[in-house]
Amino acid sequence: MWGSPGLLLTLALHPALAVAPARDYCVLGAGPAGLQMAYFLQRAGRDYTVLERAPGPGSFFARYPRHRKLISINKRYTGRSNAEFNLRHDWNSLLSHDPRLLFKHYSAAYFPDAGDMQRYLGDFAGRLGLRVQYNTTVLHVALDKDRRAWNGHYFVLTDHKGRVYRCRVLLVATGLSVPNRVDFPGSEHLEGYESVSVDPEDFVGQNVLILGRGNAAFETAENILGVTNFIHMLSRSRVRLSWATHYVGDLRAINNGLLDTYQLKSLDGLLESDLTDLAILKDREGKFHVTLKFFVEEAGTNQSADAVTLPQDDSDNFAMRVAYDRVIRCLGWNFDFSIFNESLRLSSGSEFSRKYPLIRASYEAKGSRGLFVLGTASHSVDYRKSAGGFIHGFRYTVRAVHRLLEQRHHGVAWPATQHPITQLTSSVLRRVNEASGLYQMFGVLADVILVQENATAFEYLEEFPTQMLAQLESLTGRRARHGLFVVHMEYGRNFSGPEKDVFFYDRSVGHTEDAWQSNFLHPVIYYYRHLPTEQEVRFRPAQWPLPRPTAIHHIVEDFLTDWTAPVGHVLPLRRFLENCLGTDLRSFYAAATAICDGPAQTCVCTCLPLCRVHRLCPHGFRMNLAPDVCNSDAADGNKSARGAELGMGLTRVPPTPRGPVPSPPPPRLGLLPGDHFSWSALILEPCFSKMLRQLPVSGALWRCTTRGLRVLFPVRPNAPEAAPLLPAGVLEKAGAREHREPPAARSGERADAGPRGRRPAPEGPRTAARRPQATSRAAHRGVIADDHAHLEDHAHLAAPAPSSLQG
Amino acid sequence: MMCSSFRVFRVGISFVTMCIFYKSAANSLPELSPHEYFSTLQPGKASLAYFCQADSPSTSVFLEGLHEAVRPLQDYGISVAKVNCIKEETSRYCGKDKDLMKAYLFRGNILLREFPTDTLFDENAIVAHVLFALLFNEVKYITTPEDLQSAENALKGKANIVFSYVRAIGTPEHRAVMEAAFVYGTTCQFVLTTEIALLESIGSEEIEYAHLYFFHCKPVLDLTQECRRILMEQPLTTLNIDLFIKTMNAPLLTEVAEDPQHVSTVHFQLGLPLVFIVSQQATYEADKRTAEWVAWRLLGKAGVLLLLRDSLEANIPQHANVVFKRAEKGVPVEFLVLHDVDSIISHVENNVHIEEKQEDGEDDVEGPDIGQAVSMAFLQSYIDVAAKLKGTSTMLLTRINCADWTDVCTKQNVTEFPVVKMYKEGENPVSYAGMLGTEDLLKFIQLNRISYPVNITSIQEAEQYLHGELYKDLLSYSSVSVLGLFSPTMITAKEDFIEAGRALKGYVITGVYSGEDVLILSNKYAVTLPALLLARHKEGRIESIPLANTHAHDIVQLITDASLETFPEITVENLPSYLRLQKPLLMLFSDGSINPQHEKAVLTMVEQKHLDSLTPCWLNLKNTPVGRGILKAYFDTLPPLPLLVVVNLHSGGRVFAFPSDQAITEQNLLSWLKKLEAGLENPITVLPAQDWKPPLPAYDFLSMMDAATLQHPTRKAPECLKDPDVPESVKEHHEDKSAVEREPTETLRIKRWNRSSWFKYAEESLRRDKEL
């Protein structure tokens, strides 16, 4: 009956254990991350409980931020009805199926009040009926080894009343709750952000020193900026502005009033110094003096301001020579390691050990299997990179963790949708244009497309942690044997950073062939012929978020983050996918209509003369045509067998060898002139005009009638469909010029391009060396403009007056 | 006024030239050598020349279009020629690649433009492109609302603007605009766009079609004032545009003092009604102002005249203040008493347009679409269906854009696009799986009006059903009606049939009868129960098929096969059904209807079971012109028709042709097929087993990124940067790395564009990464 002596020992240590039934999942903390996980567990019908210290959810928000204004944006309008897209700009809502539980219904303020967040979390837990046990302070977490347990051990939690909880999986969502303190002589005189007064009246006419340089420090300063004599702000590192770093945890513009007053020669100021070198001394009047630890140590233990040398004694212009009335510490927060038994090995000597528990990219603790860290405390995975420390980021990583758990413990494979390969381009397009998880957790979560055998179909997996790519098969329960695509969002490699000028002159990229130099967030698609190994992931080239792929595609950045431009975005993407898979992904329209029977003939045309049915023909054929007929390989393989059945004597002839693969087109790059129409491709193939070709996928559709071609429904009213529709001679010229120029030559040329944001006026015939640079972020439009400008040039040279037609 | 007299002159010229060419060189495309061609060029005269080396299938289609364009272009004084490069000396216009020949537009011997042949895809495209190039000054191409604004500002007080939006350059609408520009280009400024956004910015809502506006800018003297914009409501054809511009240029208000019955203005000649505002001396000024106001409101819809009652002897009723003359000839004028301008306008509008009403519906068809070409094309079919169903059905057709309503589509399990689902109260939604065309969709919707299978309640009803009396209106949509017969105890068999009936819902009419007296039917049609009766209404035949132990899936198959014809005319729509049989096609190509004797010969052979291993069929080139292309692929030159071939698509792709010197008789056919079977015939062609490869290479960003890294020596270049074209040497001479790196980036880039080496290169680098 007793499993092992080890168990006996544990039982002896925990007398209540024998009666405590084990739960599958215990979630520590009912903050946003804990509730988010509870939601997924509840929806999956799992056995779980949430243990929360406070009497209600989100107790953090009862006190913090101290000045009550959240800096996560509450964007209520985007002009779009796509719920998924709108989450891209909603920083406060948790994920749920209930549209009433969107934060926009809780506050009208762009920067909402913390009280609204608490109210929202209360509704979230209440309305969804999440099982939260409030007023339960877990004081101790230990391991109980048991071979039969899911992870080889149970997590044993003891609360303040001595109750014991045995959990198969422990999900820690306790956030960062311990104020970060720096120990130096005089640090006992500091007031902390967590307790300092928020009433500006208390600071009237005072000299204030604030230690720290984060949003809390600036928020505190902002509150008292108008009543103090001056505020000095001291920290070790330079200020990091979030609009320069693209990291929401850095100083947000809403908080930076002090930067203004400092640089506009008011009395406030910023200073850099290592805090651990400092000492703060209190004088007889109760004012504080800043000095160096070195002096204090020299003076011995009697640390009075009068006894210790102050820096101004040596140098009469020492910056902090004035006495301060208050010194406030705003140094951030640390994870509360205290309740975790050492056997859990949550912390180690890494650089984040002070602040964050040590976890893998799968959010599982490195030290103990089955312990996952969620929410703010899991931010070590993408600290200073992405949004994993914030609601709008970790709501997705929590979902990823839940999906991993479902696969690991319940055999539920990572959700995936199956599509025929013909849907590949549109699937990618759909996601890059609406997916919020990819957008918020850029660089951390990525969609994975698993190509199926013979590239006839694919599985689409959403929001997988990219750093776990090598373990994809075991973590998701899906097979990646025939190659995969990873769809990812990235900023330009050298664009973001604390000292970078993100407003530099040529920051936007408009030309498709320069897409790889895009600076703003844009989709990047990696193709791997084989699943990368762990080694490849770990030892990937510097600055690469993923191992070096077989091929890579950047979708050029878009000012509207709307990657649907047929020529600028869709066509290059489709070409990329086609070349990775070695197949033609164009859509053929195979239906007949009364007004237009041309396109209908496409498939007939391709079937009969070519002996092959294009895989896309099933669009029109799908009711009637067995799939293997469409699959050229299958048809080929059974060739002789079928011939024999037919009794036509044709089998005696050996199967015809496949015709020579047509030699690749000349190395012309990217968009070719005819390419816009796809007609040049047409000519290479024995199918004829009088048929439909797809323009760059979603652009517009040429359908032919016996009377002529018509174009149908350009998709986006504002997309540059016109580009392919301009006279082709023009496009060819422009195209040829663009493609033959090396990027280097162009980047040099950028310096003398016309003023940004304005289309350069036509200025006579252009040569290849002086191509006008597209000049706005929406520069893909500029391409067209340029092309037409060129048309004008051309015409000046040669266009006749109409009267001269008759000669 | 210099301008307008010039216009008259020009039009005159073009008509004259038209006549000349009409008589002399109608439709012929001269074939010249380069030398001949250049010697014919006359100064100032435009000429379009297509330089070609040899006729290949890919150019034949272009040539077809060019042939058709010869006459219309000659109407505009543009000569057309085909220049053969092979015959004699070459020219620089001949190019090198024989499949990528271009057409060139010259004026005199100055080259104006070159056109890749694929832009000139048909007659309309050719005419449109050529005129577009020549009328450069007359037709301003713009892309932004700002361009339009500045064009408008520039012309205020000077000239009117004809602004048109066409969906693409080279469309028939574009051609029509260009032709209009040829005539009116000197009096009006033509402005053209293909940007939908631009059209939207001036307030158009229905943008599926081309639009044309007339901007009355000439009367605008105050620059802050807008030009009045009048939308042409008719489709964009040359004739309509011509009439429209004529009405726009006609005087706004004409004063008359004649009997309205006899008055005719340009408006009336153009088919528009006339509105007479009756005036008298005392109120002349006020009436004139009213009439002008009305005229502006009715511009393009009706002609407005001021009728001076005082100087008129005729019979205008005392109180009438408006006279309305309908556009139809011979209809008496109406005398009206209308009290304000709005009632005049609405009277005119109500008598011009027929009001459209919306249907109320009980059913709901959902057609999601996402920004994808197929969806977009299908949408047209869908709209056509909606138009056809209008007023006849209680069906509500809706569309959902899944790009916006992702969650809705996900909930409906819609993952592929386009999808049509039909929702009926109390039933599960049905997904449409047929051809994406109007006819098939319409058929599906119509057949779905009844539930499947139809429960037949009596022998009489069953007979009515079998004889097509029960669902007369649906017979045209289903070639056969199927009736399942079961005795009341055959529960499983009946269930199987019902399942099959549901699966065929919307494609074939099915019914089921299992009354106590079912034996009467089984006896009558001599079949044992359970059974199927198959009524072929066209042939008036009823077949019976026993159904013992047949599963639902097989029943579906059975019914599907039964609805195939024995000697069908192959069309685009039905080809897949016959290809599915996986037999070689015995196909008779016919230029028009099939010869009854040939048909009889084949049918006899079918009856005698000689053709069981083949799918006999025929193709009417008149109905299915793509057949011509097929024949060209089989034979180099189009052979005389009719023509019989055996095409074996499923094994080997061999094509055999029945000797053209033999008559297509049973006897000859039989012996030919025997020879085929014995392997004594040679195929006329073997269709290539061509794969669908990527049509063009993609951007190779990976090497661009590598090249950039190489250019910055400060950053360590990844080891994998080796030249793809020398992988062997790289492998052997690992130490040679520096040499490769010294190679100019430009060269590297170009080399890496070579698609064939792309993956080889990637693999190479991967391998090397592993080694390191």
UniProtKB/TrEMBL annotation, chain A:
Keyword set includes Oxidoreductase: yes
CC terms in the record's Gene Ontology section: endoplasmic reticulum lumen
Biased composition (Low complexity): 797-807
SUPFAM superfamilies xrefs: FAD/NAD(P)-binding domain (SSF51905)
Molecular function GO labels: flavin adenine dinucleotide binding; monooxygenase activity
GO biological process, one term: ERAD pathway
Entry keyword Iron: no
Keywords: Endoplasmic reticulum, FAD, Flavoprotein, Glycoprotein, Oxidoreductase, Signal
Comp. bias (Pro residues): 654-667
Feature: compositional bias, Basic and acidic residues: 735-755, 783-796
Leader peptide range in chain numbering: 1-18
Record region (Disordered): 648-667, 735-807
Pfam families for the chain: Pyr_redox_3
Cofactor: FAD
InterPro entries hit by this protein: Auxin_biosynth/cation_transpt (IPR050982), FAD/NAD-bd_sf (IPR036188)
Coiled-coil features, chain-numbered ranges: none
Function: Probable flavoprotein which may function in endoplasmic reticulum associated degradation (ERAD). May bind non-native proteins in the endoplasmic reticulum and target them to the ubiquitination machinery for subsequent degradation.
Family per record: Belongs to the FOXRED2 family.
Quaternary structure annotation from Swiss-Prot or TrEMBL: Interacts with SEL1L. May interact with OS9 and DNAJC10. Interacts with TXNDC16.
The protein, known as: FAD-dependent oxidoreductase domain-containing protein 2
Species of the source: Oryctolagus cuniculus (Rabbit)
